[in-house]
Amino acid sequence: MTFAPSMDDLMTGKDTPDPLKYAFEQKRGAHAGGPGRPPLAPEQAQQRLSSLLSAGVTSDKRRALYVHIPFCRVRCTFCSFFQYASSRKLVDQYFGFLLQEIERKGRTQYAQSAPFHAVYIGGGTPTDLSALQLTQLGQALRANFPLTSDCELTLEGRINKFDDAKFNGALEGGFNRFSFGVQSFNTQVRKAAKRLDDRESVMARLTELSQSGLAPIVIDLLFGLPHQSTSIWQQDLEDMLATNVSGVDLYQLIDLKGTPMLEQCEKGSAPPPADTATKSQMYRYGNDFMERHHFQRLSCCHWSQDNRERSLYNSMVKAGAEILPLGAGAGGNLGGFALMQPRDLERYQVSIEQQRWPIMVLLPKSETHLKSQLVGACDKGVISRRLLGGDLYEHARPLFAQWQQRGLAKVSDTAVAFTLAGRFWQVNLCNGLLSYLDTNPLSMEKSA
Ligand SMILES: C[S@@+](CC[C@H](N)C(=O)[O-])C[C@H]1O[C@@H](n2cnc3c(N)ncnc32)[C@H](O)[C@@H]1O
Ligand code: SF4
């Protein structure tokens, strides 16, 4: 009997003359991967995390630290990451607790047993910390955790009020990569989204920071924002180029549930964001632009202009590396568990005061190492035979052939390389492949 795998449009994409626009309806959420196991009860979670942290690392996976700073001065209308409006008092108080957590976690056997390859300070807006706090934070992390000699230490944030004192303070702390959310340079688009500063100030400051040559400066741009016409998007890319940043992320606007922007659109007080077909064309333009200017594509949505930008942390996260979380609202992944720390500041602070680990959820991970690696591979736009292993690669060939036929990938004996359309729909392709492997386990083919 020959093996006839079961497949549907959610795995293969639709058969359409324009796969970039229409292969799928919209970006599909993460593949659930079968029923997950329930989170540990609070006391059990404390004990399990204590035992994970008192053991040395068992895997040779690369690992990173993630530190969360949950404050922003003003909430941008499109953003679902916003947690707390910053006030000096709130930030200072939080910072004290964060340093305590850094010291406590740094003393564990888990922390000391192997070096970390990357550190990422994300938010919120970490650049809202004071210059002195930026120095202290970097120094505390370097003093308490072993880091590799080429460790990437990223500070995320925005240009607003990021003056020389803060830049120098962060450099003194050891930060060696700066990632600024710009979203759009256009002043009208920025104002409507409640971004601070106008186009000229953002461009001037980014140019200054890049020209200093002191560290790679990378930025995030969004496409699909209200008021952001195609010509504004084209100008955004030209503006990015003019600032001479080392790298850029091009993100399509998604996940608007619960954001002020969605509310404004529903009330009719703001124009709607772009639909998926329009965003696909903006993505095409972005890709062509990067190619024309000889940027190097590091993933489906990230490009580097020079060899200073490695984007190490982002690719490690996508590929399921161990991440030790620090701070309220930080998420991580260690010893086969997903760990989410409390988002609520008071809950976080009480845990630190009581010398307990700040845990909101500790969950045994249901996904396999292979799944994490596939997510990382799809994020890069290439699934190699070496990664899947010969048997599984051949087993998935019927699906790959459908992708090729639908213009989403080019398949060879060594790898599946996503086309432009495949890269735009990479999350759907990844989920399609995972569903295919669930629905058609390798054992089925062997018994056929
Ligand atoms: C957590 S934010 C922090 C950035 C920084 N606070 C800032 O103001 O730019 C990181 C990135 O998430 C992206 N982001 C936020 N909301 C998004 C959305 N609705 N869709 C896609 N990307 C989004 C933005 O590009 C942003 O730069
Ligand atoms: S984009 Fe940045 S500054 Fe704006 S709300 Fe989100 S995290 Fe805060």
TrEMBL record:
Entry keyword annotation includes DNA-binding: no
PROSITE patterns on file: RADICAL_SAM (PS51918)
Alphabetic keyword roster: Iron, Iron-sulfur, Metal-binding, S-adenosyl-L-methionine
Cofactor(s) the protein requires to work: [4Fe-4S] cluster
Domain called Radical SAM core: residue spans: 57-296
GO molecular function, one term: metal ion binding
GO CC terms in record: cytoplasm
Recorded coiled-coil stretches: none
Name of the molecule in the record: Coproporphyrinogen III oxidase, anaerobic
Top-level taxonomy: Bacteria, Pseudomonadati, Pseudomonadota, Gammaproteobacteria, Alteromonadales
